[in-house]
Specification:
By secondary structure, this protein is α+β, with helices and mostly antiparallel strands. The protein is built from eleven helices and 18 strands. Strands 1-2-6-3-7-17 form a six-stranded mixed sheet, with helices on both faces. The chain has a four-stranded antiparallel sheet with strand order 11-13-9-14. The structure holds zinc ion.
């Protein structure tokens, strides 16, 4: 069977309808509200997959927070390709700032609007529709094709971490991460380390600073060290044509860390978080040593203070795959077959579930999905229907190439 025959099995009306349905089911995870999870949208995904006759697995990652997987093809031999999406979305913020209802899923002038329309219910819907089209076509696959709807990508990525511990996760050969990257083939993703730096001094009266050790002095020194740390990281990391160079950005500063701030009290503790973004190259240990050095210098600037740091959420290193990877080749050919255009390469400005899969399982990942790269998390988020349809076509052609029987 020709690829074009399978492509013709994509039902664009169903794909648009599915995307709008997913957007209309809110899945903002709100702390302290047990009902505000991915549960409802995950249940919809599961029901849809069962209707299509996929082999469905549901993994309860946390209460009310299931990962849902639908598979077709040969489970006994051959590679396993995952089309990966997440079901959670970030908050809509102040709904009055939206010109269309954030969970309306409105279709206007070739665009679907709403929170998650780009990031990434459209990518997930395109992946689901792609697997359905392949299944309907009856074409045989030389392996297994799985579409996964994971929880908590916008949080601690517990869905992706959980997947890596399961038999299905360990069986994966490669993954396409369906995040909004305007259907570019992103072979690189920036990494992130949130360095939470804690400075301990000694509490004293503000009028008698010599009686204490002011942790704010050390914290100030640390913030002055940030540009030097950034320069060192830029030297260590490889230059990438697709990614901005490493950055070190202070994002949170606290003093005192606990208790009531008082104008005449030197606090005992201060804290800052550095949002450290990385490009591929050095390993985690090397990055850690550079952050250690910044802390060491801050400590030297304030005798008596101790400066320690830890990585909130661990190290999520930058990822890269080479163009020679079979997955990349399958997708380069797939883009041409699906769109008639040459593939465009790009890079992901942040980390994704793919970061976890790449660094934990070691499998190649390519990030490619519908939606403008800059639109996620904004008001009036939307996806172009033409990009949505292109994405489904790219997934079909790429999967057929990768899993050629
Ligand atoms: Zn996303």
């Amino acid at each position: 069977m020709r690829t074009s025959d399978v492509l013709s099995r994509i039902d664009e009306g169903d794909l648009i309808g599915l995307t709008r349905d997913l957007v209309r089911i809110p899945s903002v995870v709100r702390a302290g509200q047990p009902d505000a999870t991915e549960a409802a949208v995950a249940a919809h995904v599961e029901r849809w997959m069962r209707e299509q006759g996929f082999h469905v697995e549901v993994h309860e990652v946390a209460p009310g927070r299931p990962n849902v997987f639908g598979a077709i093809g040969d489970t006994s031999s051959g590679p396993t390709l995952l089309l990966e999406g997440h079901t959670d979305v970030v908050t809509e913020g102040d709904a009055s700032l939206w010109s269309r209802p954030p969970f309306g899923g409105e279709l206007v002038d070739g665009r679907i609007y709403g929170r998650g329309s780009a990031d990434m219910k459209s990518g997930l819907a395109a992946a689901m529709a792609a697997v359905a089209a392949i299944k309907r076509s009856g074409v045989s696959l030389g392996g297994r094709l799985v579409v996964g709807a994971l929880v908590d990508e916008e949080g601690d990525m517990i869905g992706a971490k959980h997947l890596c511990t399961t038999p299905l996760g360990r069986a994966l050969t490669a993954a396409i991460i369906c995040e909004p990257e305007q259907n570019e083939l992103c072979l690189e993703q920036r990494g992130v380390v949130w360095a939470r730096v804690t400075v301990r001094g000694r509490m004293a009266h503000g009028a008698m600073p010599e009686a204490g050790v002011n942790p704010i002095t050390a914290l100030g020194a640390l913030l002055r060290e940030a540009p030097a740390l950034e320069r060192r990281l830029r030297k260590l990391c490889k230059r990438s044509p697709y990614l901005r160079p490493p950055t070190v950005t202070p994002t949170v500063v606290l003093a005192p860390v606990q208790g009531v701030p008082q104008s005449n009290v030197i606090p005992s503790m201060a804290q800052a978080t550095l949002d450290v973004r990385l490009t591929p190259g050095p390993d985690a240990e090397t990055i850690g040593k550079e952050i250690d050095l910044a802390c060491q210098r801050a400590m030297e600037a304030c005798p008596g203070a101790t400066v320690e740091w830890h990585a909130v959420n661990g190290y999520r290193m930058a990822t890269r795959v080479e163009r020679e990877e079979p997955l990349v080749k399958a997708m380069m050919k797939g883009v041409r077959q699906a769109t008639g255009r040459a593939p465009t390469f790009g890079g992901v400005p942040g980390s994704t579930d793919g970061t976890i899969l790449r660094t934990t399982l070691g499998i190649p990942i390519v990030t490619c999905g519908p939606g403008h790269r800059l639109i996620p998390h904004q008001v009036d988020e939307y996806v172009e229907v033409s990009e949505l349809v292109d994405a489904a076509r790219i997934y079909v052609a790429s999967a057929l190439n990768f899993l050629e029987a």
